[in-house]
Design the sequence.
């Protein structure tokens, strides 16, 4: 596990890096801590750094990188490290990358604890420290009325750089100097953003998962562009003629296609009809005629009374021959008279 921990003041970098150190046995390497330790031990680099600080000047990047090189060469850093507070700008980041390549310990990930500005101000301005044991508290989470350390009872104090006006200035400096690192490490494929708000254990679980996840090399990343959906716009006045012409063309094409299909199908039917034998043709004609001819309906059977009435009526009606006989008889009678 070789990571750089980024985050604004008050984001919880120190607390979370200590938890990672305790669980995985990798040292937390803070530029401020190794600088004070080198000065206290009186090493060569420590003496140089002390002379610069006594003169009221800032320690150069080369000097800080030399201290980091010595710290990472110690046995406890063989399995990894957690860099906290360094790098602070892009120049330091590039110098650190060159150093880690030289010693054969490149970074696995860069973790950014993302916390809202309101939360940062609340954490920093409400922070209190025990002057004896160094325990850190926050007035917003302490029991009501408590003002002393729970371990030794010492009166808690506020650091000068934790006052609200100083906190606002520190956050501005962070935005100007350190924020560009986010874009730098994002382009290299190492950056992983972790939500830094919530319960301490929840934030640690998110940070741990991000630290153990394997990074994807930037050269293997492939970005696909999604096609934008076309937005329907209101038709223009001049476009009506074009659209009408287009629709007429489409109609003509459709009719031509249908006519062509119909002619092709009729030709196929005629060819199939000619290929059939005469007996089959006659059978088809008979079937067609049978379909067209409607069957005659049978009259409903009449009752017996209806049939008797019909017979009587038929008996009473004179036939044509009887009529002729009667007419001849009448004419003879008239002639005798």
Sequence:
């Amino acid at each position: 596990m070789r990571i750089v921990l980024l985050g604004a003041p008050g984001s919880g970098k120190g607390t979370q890096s200590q938890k990672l150190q305790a669980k995985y046995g990798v040292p937390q390497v803070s530029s401020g801590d190794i600088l004070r330790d080198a000065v206290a031990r009186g090493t060569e680099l420590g003496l140089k750094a002390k002379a610069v600080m006594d003169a009221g000047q800032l320690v150069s990047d080369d000097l800080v990188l030399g201290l980091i090189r010595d710290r990472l060469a110690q046995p406890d850093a063989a399995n990894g490290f957690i860099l906290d507070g360094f790098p602070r700008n892009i120049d330091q980041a590039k110098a650190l990358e060159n150093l880690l390549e030289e010693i054969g310990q490149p970074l696995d990930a860069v973790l950014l604890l993302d916390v809202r500005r309101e939360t940062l101000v609340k954490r920093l301005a409400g922070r209190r420290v025990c002057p004896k044991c160094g325990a850190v508290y926050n007035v917003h989470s302490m029991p009501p009325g408590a003002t002393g350390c729970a371990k030794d009872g010492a009166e808690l104090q506020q650091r000068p750089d934790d006052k609200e006006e100083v906190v606002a200035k520190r956050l501005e400096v962070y935005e100007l100097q350190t924020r560009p690192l986010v874009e730098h490490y994002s382009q290299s494929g190492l950056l992983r953003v972790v939500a830094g708000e919530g319960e301490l254990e929840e934030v640690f679980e998110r940070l741990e998962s991000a630290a153990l996840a394997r990074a994807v090399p930037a050269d293997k990343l492939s970005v696909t562009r999604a096609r934008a959906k076309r937005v329907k716009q209101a038709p223009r006045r001049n476009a009506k003629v074009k659209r009408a012409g287009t629709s007429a063309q489409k109609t003509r094409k459709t009719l031509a296609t249908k006519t062509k299909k119909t002619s092709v199908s009729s030709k196929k039917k005629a060819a199939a009809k000619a290929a059939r034998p005469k007996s089959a043709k006659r059978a088809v004609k008979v079937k067609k005629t049978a379909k067209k001819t409607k069957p005659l309906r049978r009259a409903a059977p009449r009752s017996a009374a209806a049939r008797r009435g019909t017979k009587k009526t038929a008996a009473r009606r004179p036939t044509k021959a009887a009529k002729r006989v009667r007419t001849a008889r009448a004419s003879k009678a008239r002639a005798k008279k």
Notes: The first strand starts at residue 2 and ends at 7. The CA atoms of residues 244 and 250 lie 10 Å apart. The domain at 2-27+74-216 is CATH 3.40.50.300 (Rossmann fold).
